[in-house]
Specification:
127 residues; alpha+beta; globular
């Protein structure tokens, strides 16, 4: 496998793992890999209380030595996530609270993945 293919497989495994985790926590997974043009959102879920729509950015790393996954969510990435979330809210005519979370998945396979869920990690509207 090429490095890129491996990276994409890891990302997919991490996203699957994160989606399963959210579902186990009682979240309703509304969308995965939602795209509009070049904008994409990893996971869109509704909180267990049904009040808030959460846009979840999943970061998967084999090790946390290089940089913490949340450090990979740059101001530019946050801006793009905000634009994508806004487009989604408009398209679906949502009138819900929204929140932006990061889920860090660290490990080499689902057998040893460690997951960290950072709720309300950032707000693109308050930059």
């Amino acid at each position: 496998l090429t490095q890129m293919a491996k990276h994409n497989d890891m990302g997919r495994m991490g996203e699957d793992f994160a989606a399963r985790y959210l579902a186990q926590q009682g979240y309703d997974i509304m969308e995965r890999d939602w795209q509009q043009g070049s904008r994409d959102l990893d996971i869109i879920a509704r909180t267990p209380d049904g009040i808030t729509v959460v846009f979840v950015e999943v970061k998967t790393r084999t090790s946390d030595e290089i940089m913490l996954p949340e450090e990979a969510v740059t101001p530019q990435k946050i801006h793009h996530l905000g634009l994508a979330a806004h487009a989604y809210v408009q398209e679906k005519a949502l009138d819900d609270e929204v929140r932006f979370d990061i889920i860090n998945v660290i490990g080499t396979s689902p057998d040893n993945f460690q997951l960290e869920h950072i709720e309300d990690a950032f707000n693109p509207l308050l930059r």
